[in-house]
Please model this.
Amino acid sequence: MDRRDVLKMGAVATLLAKSPLTLAKHQDDSADVVVVGSGGAGLVAALTAFDLGAKVIVLEKMPITGGNTQLSAGGMNAAETVIQKKKGVEDNWKIMFDDTMKGGQNKNNPQLVEILAKNSSASIDFLLSVGADMTDLGRMAGASVNRTHRPVGGEAVGHNLVHTLRQNAIKRNIDVRTGSKALKILSDKQGKVVGIEVEDRNGRKYKIQAPTIVLASGGFSANHERVVKYRPEYAGFSSTNQPGATGDGLDLAVAVGAKLIDMEQIQIHPTQAAGSKILITEAVRGNGAILVNREGKRFVNELTTRDKASAAVLQQTGKSAFLILDQEIRKSLKQIEGYYHLELVKEGETPQALAKACGITDGDALAATIKKYNEYQAAKKDEAFERADMPRPIQAAKFIAIEIRPGIHYTMGGVKIDTKTRALRAKDEQPIPGLYGAGEVTGGVHGANRLGGNSISETITFGRIAGAEAAAYAKAAKTAKA
Ligand code: MEZ
Model:
């Protein structure tokens, strides 16, 4: 166990110790806002609603908080931020909007994308204000400029973010209930939300009366059966997600008449470490790595969108490929140390030695590929694949390889929402009174393909909106009753 694991366990222990209701026996209860899910979207919605005066209960079916956000590696996309300004990066919301629409094959809901891009800078300000570290900047595939914000040194964003949000929830004494599964959204004859039925960690069922529910329960990438139902060709692919990402929130929403959209839009990430469930962050390519096939040759623009990069990997011998990098790229991104720790890395003093170590069949071809790439990098022009950004050459021995193959990473589809994050009914696309959604449980923001770094961006921005809208709705409902 390394120091980071110990720190993570410490954070979990602190949370359990300081959240008295986590271990309490639950009885029928009431709240203004119930948040289902405790990843980025859920915790941000909870903090926002709480700070607006709402009584908030967060339900998390897993034993710990954090959802998939906890595993998030690459960072958060945002345009026109204080961090970009400090680093002299010119960007604006419209470029982020255009990149996102293009990445999503223009199947995204443009109104939601506009919200994502326009609010992203304020979402970075929000995170900085609550103590998150977003001071390093990188680039993810499909982005025109460096707009992916992450902790200093290129640390993974997830544990920093979740730790910060947890600490904020603890500080406010927000009622966060782990091991608590939402069973059913309760509504009245008019279809208005009136509460939720819950099963606690001991199998005991109880009800919480509440005028609003924020669904922030994530996607379904870890539910293989459900994935294959929509995309039979992904049978046998493993997932990069935490095991709780099963899509139960979708069933809760459908049971009260919500509309689902884009369910067949399921993203496979090109670089899951071969033979494991571990995601190798896109930031490795963003910081300079190339992709080569088993024959030692490049075959794709490494910074193209994930749909295209994954499709290209699947066409190579053995349906896998190798990330090739060097010690300078390693130094630029702390996350790479984690891959050493997990023994996913092969090294060689020369490209030929590296090829031998990792199973690339033609070491001279690999040497020629690296040499050619370095020439393109020096000339700032990739004549082979038109890669737009080549921040570093690959020349500092030892050379490094990580074998990768595509893995199920993200479900773009989900509950249809409007610009206020209200869940819409299937029958007439009108809002279901009191039901909100934020993050991966919803559909529409990413269209046919999500850009790396846009998930955290979505969870923070739409989590803030959902928290504020739900708090306002609950307040108005209370006033109307009084
Ligand atoms: O947003 C993501 O999914 C992401 C940045 C993943 C990664 O490769 O790190």
Observations:
- The pocket of (2E)-2-methylbut-2-enedioic acid is lined by residues 73-74, 140, 279, 281-283, 452-453, 455 (CB under 6 Å).
- The CA atoms of residues 64 and 274 lie 27 Å apart.
